[in-house]
Amino acid sequence: MPAGSRLALKFLLLLGTVTAMCLMPHRTAVAQDLTYFAPGDILPRTVRGITGRSVSFPEWTFPMEVGSATGLHAYMGTQLRDYHGLQSNNDPRLFNYPHRDNQCEPRSRNVAACPAGKGHQGVDIRANDNADKKWNVVAVEDGVVTLITRNTTVGVKNGNHTVQYLHMDPGSIRDAGIEVGDVIRKGQVLGKVSCFMGGSCATSRHLHFHAYTGTLGEGRFYHVYPSLIAAYRRAWNLSDNVENGELKHDPVRETGAPISGSQSVGSPQASCSGIELGDPPAGVDRNAFSSLWLHNCSVMGLVADTVTGARSFVYYHPKASLKDVVALEPMLFTGVNEAGSFRGQARHYSSRCGTAVFDVSGIAFEENGNPVVEVKGRRPQRNPACEMTGTVEEVLRFTFVERVSPSGPPVDHVIPDDRITLSEKTRNFLAITFYPDENGTIRLLPYFAEFPGLATQGGLTDSAGGLIPALRTDEAGVAISWVWIRKRARFTDGLRVTPRTVAHSMAGVDPGACDSQLRPTPVAVQASGNTAAQDACNRVAAYLRGYVGFANGRDFAGDYFGRRVGVDEELILAEPETAWNWMRTMYSHESGRPPVITRTVFERGLRFGDDYISSFYDGVPDVLKSVEFYQNPCNFAQPECSVPVAGNNVQPAGNGEEQPGATTASDARIEELFRLMLDISARVTALENAAGGP
Ligand SMILES: [Zn+2]
């Protein structure tokens, strides 16, 4: 670890233990603390950033007041809680180095320069601390103000490119005297850092910064991080390290190849370097794992079964000193996870005396926002003759690295012939739609944008210009609808809904806005005017007509429940039949006909949705598996298990004659995994840091 980041680490640890420090602006920190990740080293690790180091704008000043003149700092990095594992705007770790590039993070926006062709179009920058309307945003260069919006964006054009500064407080822009048409100068204050998006405080307090050429919609964004690092260095009187238009590697300030941001904080594994996660060892199916973890500088794959609670940690990339000894028995831990308590058996490897198995137990917990599993037990102690002489305590610690995102051929382009309507073709069975903001940008909400079942292409546009994103599989389509009903439906209480509350949520209408006959209430009329209030209630009524036959509508619920369902009848979706009947009712309202999916696809989709909720909302990342996993009936002991599933890269286990339960299917998968792992040792990449063993 370079000296600079060790210093930063010490500072971080100090902050982590003293909560009062949250309130302290970091004026006391010195430039020596400055460290940064390489360009393109973004989160999550499964998405690629732009690794090029071109400094397109060698003359820029940094877009916030920073540097040795003022002692002020700023911190580039992700704003998405799910990636950095931080809980709030005030977490002191948000206001610390290293800087991290976050251009090309998952977003729907077209960005030609990103490897995926889309993503986050610029970088996000935190100020010294989370104070609102306190920290100045300054122009990086001269130009003419061409735009001021409710986002709150100031656009400044200079020659053939435009720079945009987002989310500032609108009052502060006025106070700075900035108006469209003004000529502004490099370093001039444009406004103050705030959280404005779409006219209100709707994002974290940060400056979003990007630059593009041509028109915004063309997606020709510059990779701004190298230019900003160079500007930041200059602000602190450091050499900008730019040579021949490129940001040179700085071995002191540029952090190596850490596994993830939180991994390097206070982790005993911080010294593991050169570990590659991207490519699985030859012959190993990465999708067989739900997530990857670090254990003593080896990368482990976790096999997780949410039905039985079974968990196994299997060597995925063993460190060099272990690769031979673990090759034959790669499963280090096997056991169960019951509500965060782990128990099972672990292996102790010895090339001389052979492998010993011993009982272990422990817990899963969070450390610096990162999941950790720690189990311990007493392993056999053996003398030189390999006779057992006693036991000694051994602790096995696993630190979460990343969820496994399925790779391989995309499965999102094949639309079965039976699909007619927008919701069927996109597999977005509730037609969850996202509309453009005033810049024409369509922004998916994070729960949707980060869903692994989201297709990279294939979304369709509705008549009002909204995007109905497509899902990769039918199970993913069911899953995201289930996430919506469980977590997004605003007026429902957990798994208890009524047709009326769901209709209000689907229509985006406040529950108090319409009376029992779906006429606007006086309060609603006063708030939004007669026409708008009437429109809102009409939208709610349209859902209820389709759902339960309100005002002599279609009544799809009648088809599935076999009876009339009341507008205010409570439906308990924890009951499988009720869930199936009600979700079919909703799907049918969108498509106008019975759903195209079967009951077993639906059940797998619910599991996908439940696992995603555990992962995204509840911070239990180890349960979520690959998209393909949820396509396979054998993983759920469903009757179709005997029939190979088209397009699956996970083959059904067994020969189909007997599938007594999920446990058996899961065991078969683990055996398969074992077989694959036998082959890897010779081909495993040599890893650095060969010291020590479990
Ligand atoms: Zn941003």
Poorly predicted segments = 1-29, 257-271, 406-413, 644-694
Termini separation (Å)?
Answer: 23 Å
Named once each, the bound ligands are: zinc ion
- Mean pLDDT over all positions: 80
- Proportion of β residues? 15-25%
Backbone structural class? alpha+beta
Assembly form of the protein: single chain
Under CATH at level 1, the class of the domain at 3-247 stands as: Mainly Beta
CATH fold descriptor of the domain at 3-247? Glucose Permease (Domain IIA)
Number of helix segments?
Answer: 15
- Taking strands numbered 1, 2, ... along the chain, how are they ordered across the largest sheet? 14-15-16-17-18-19-20-21
Overall outline: flat
What share of the residues lie within helices? 10-25%
Largest sheet entry: 8 strands, antiparallel, barrel
Radius of gyration: 27 Å
Just name the CATH architecture of the domain at 3-247.
Distorted Sandwich
Can you characterise this structure?
Among the domains are: 3-247, Distorted Sandwich (Glucose Permease (Domain IIA)), CATH 2.70.70.10; 279-404 and 646-694, Lipocalin, CATH 2.40.128. The protein contains 15 helices and 25 strands. The protein has helices at residues 3-17, 81-84, 170-175, 225-235, 323-327, 422-426, 446-449, 474-488, 499-507, 522-528, 530-548, 556-561, 576-591, 599-616, 662-677, and strands spanning 75-76, 123-126, 136-138, 143-148, 154-158, 161-166, 183-184, 189-192, 196-197, 200-201, 207-213, 242-243, 246-247, 291-295, 298-304, 310-317, 331-338, 341-348, 356-367, 370-382, 388-403, 460-461, 467-468, 496-497, 571-572. Strands 14-15-16-17-18-19-20-21 form an eight-stranded antiparallel barrel. A seven-stranded antiparallel beta sheet has the order 1-2-11-6-5-4-7, with no helix packed on it. A two-stranded antiparallel sheet has the order 3-8. A hairpin with a 2-residue loop joins β17 and β18 (341-348). α8 packs across α14 (599-616), α9 crosses α11 and α10 (522-528) crosses α11. The longest helix is centred in the last third of the chain and has 19 residues, at 530-548. Zinc ion binds next to loops.
